[in-house]
Amino acid sequence: MWWKVVLGLLALWLVLSVAGAVIGFVVKGLFWLAVIGGALFLITAAVGWAKRDSRQVGGRDRGRQLR
Fold this sequence. Notes:
Elements: H1 2-51, H2 60-66
């Protein structure tokens, strides 16, 4: 009879291990997705900041550049 308890505990341990691995994988993936998204946001912001001086919104220079 004690082997049923041991098998039950082993099954519980296996289920918890698999669940922990899946949850850990998902959290790690979401973390790296956030890191990549943040890096792309910063790159986009830097490019926009650098280009803001080269164009004058509503200015006379913009019309000359388009022709």
